[in-house]
Amino acid sequence: MLNTEKRNEKTTHIDKMQTSQMVKIMQEENLNAVNAINTELDAISLCIDKIDERMKKGGRLFYIGCGTSGRLGVLDASECPPTYGVPYDLVVGIMAGGDKAIRKAVEGAEDSFESGYEDIKNYNITENDSVVGISVAGGAKYVLGAFKCAKESGALIVALTCNAGSKIEQEADVVIHPDTGAEVVTGSTRMKAGTSHKMILNMISTAVMIKQGHVYENLMINLKPSNEKLYKRMISIVSDITGKDYEESEKLLKENNFVIRDAIDNSK
Asked: Is 79 a catalytic residue?
């Protein structure tokens, strides 16, 4: 039996627990999910370096998965453009069942090998692209289909799962598999497994964007003033880097079409 499908001995009577007991044990298990990532840091680092290498040659990063796994990939991909100012087609999230499955489950979508193959094929994958397949159990046919297409194109294949020795691992160039164990509610992998995968995806996209030059020191320098919060953040960033006050920094940004790099370069 898969580790993620086993019953958690600590929670066999969670339906009888007081609310405070439920919350305490959930938090204990959350911490286990965090700690499970420690064994995978080398694999995560290797994954990041290989993606960065390909992206510097014009490649893209694709996340592909089903259900919660697919939603996590879509979430991470959708946050890259507003955070780092990159094009929306640089990091792409694809999930079984299409965009409608983000809100409503499309039953059976994960079982279609052919759909996974075709969904990746539609993006004209090349050897410079990277495909991260996300599957907690590690056997989603949809992801395996995507991997087959990616392999035919020579793309980098990364397996992100929580069960060592799974099928998607056998097809991957890099394997990441934090052992998060049995869930608080048996088989509800949106919990610990999903939490660990969200953190790993954060690491991957953040580190790749840093290595691609979209961060100066620890500041986001490719922001767009799309709302009041980001407008003020951009001014603060220019102020932090140049040492100028708020009004001077705002003036610099306006004079340089709200491009932080240009504002900094022209502040000297």
From this structure: yes
